[in-house]
Give the backbone structure.
Amino acid sequence: MRLEPPRRAPDNEQKLMVLACIERLGPCTEMQLLQFLFEHDLMNYFEMMFALNDLCDGGQAARVKVNGETRCEVTEAGREALGLFGGRVPRSLMELLEKEGVRWRQRFEQEAQSSHSLEKTERGDYRLNLTLKENEEELMHLGLTLPTRELARQVAEKWPGRAGKIYAEIIRLLSEEKG
């Protein structure tokens, strides 16, 4: 029995796939893009990076720094390329982007509004810095010292989905009249 190597999309097809994903999912980090591609078994890290680098070198995509974070965006030349060659993007990917695109875009936007960083202190515990932004303006910065890396990781994981609620609750509690 002869094993066939996995099918590998031609480089141009991979580039169009990456370009279509960025356009439909909106500006995103390389890691966010990889999560989408990997979760849907579309492309591995190396294929994505080769395609993305070619797109950036060719001017169809750009890496843009926003508040210390690099996001991938489609350029005008990229939109033109999709207009001319978008029909070569596999129909299954376009259907997936149509079905899942809004959810992933919202997830990426939520992740852009809330961020975190973690560092080990001299005492051996962990300092977790949590940030909530709106329209690129920092609304809240919260620093927590936690005893273990695992607890810090758990808190950081929950932060994006709960940051807005935590902010609202803090404002509510601090603005209450004494009763």
About this structure: Residues 11-111 form a domain with the Arc Repressor Mutant, subunit A fold (CATH 1.10.10.10). The chain has two domains: 11-111, 113-175.
